[in-house]
Task: structure prediction
Amino acid sequence: MLKNKKPLVVIITLFIVSFVLIPTFLVLPYSSASSSSSKVELVKTLKGMKKKVVHESAPTSNLSIPVFRSTEKKIEKVKMEEYVKGVVASEMPAQFEMEALKAQALSARTYVAKALERHTTSLPKGALVTDSTSDQVYKNEQELKALWKGTYKEKMKRITEAVQATEGKIVTYDGKPITASFFSTSNGYTEDSADYWGDKLPYLQSVSSPWDRSAEKFTAKVDLPLKEVERKLGVSLREEGAVGTITKRTKGKRIAKIVIDHHEFSGKEIREKLALRSTDFTLMKRGDIVTVITKGFGHGVGMSQYGANGMAADGKSYKEIVKHYYKGVTIATYKPNE
Result:
């Protein structure tokens, strides 16, 4: 009987060693000293997962933008991507090249991302942006339908395509949303931000924009009453012919300083006082009339819309357009929760 029991004892012993003692020995080294580090790693992992989930569950389409409607004097909350559609539709002709529309969508989204970052506004409490040129022109679906009537579906299809192609994307510099300024038409060059606003921003430099020369708004002529010009500028214009002496030009070939009747003005001052289309102008007195000829349309800083359309017609992508007008920038996904 004892001979028969010996193999059984061996088997039982091996079982205990294999399935009870060995696992215990393997676990012991990690059960004390390493337990805290394991917990730390787990917490880090969970935090990382949480951060990722926040970004995935909060795309720009879920952000509400409080827009102050200047006519109704009320705040309208609009989803981010719907807001971008309303801005692109209001700020750029829907028949423009698709890549130009995409570039405009990027600028519009970046503008409001910058506004969200600032957290300051002079608008009524609760509003982030207005619907006018003080920020970006915005029209909602009902307003666009009334404006476009029978062409609404066709035009909105193009706008929607441009916005969806860039959904969630903004233009950044050093990881932050830029001041994505834009304007209608250049005089062949864009303006350096320091020359127009006084603030030097590295991405808003003067660049060439030859595509504007064929734009319908490249040059314009207007006749102003002499007395109106004298009153608004506080000068007396007696001599016929060219008015004023240009003493300095900007990097963008616009007027920086001009002397009129012994008074020195900046080009921006003259533009604002006389409501001119740009700061690249000439003034000519003929009798009781002052004829003004301007080149370009708008402040000239940032992206030229007609220039963007010209670049797109030449086969340039929206990324190339954006990086031409905004120097040293990156196109990135907007992550509002960071």
Observations:
- The longest helix spans residues 2-27.
- Residues 86 and 143 are 9 Å apart (CA to CA).
- The radius of gyration is 32 Å.
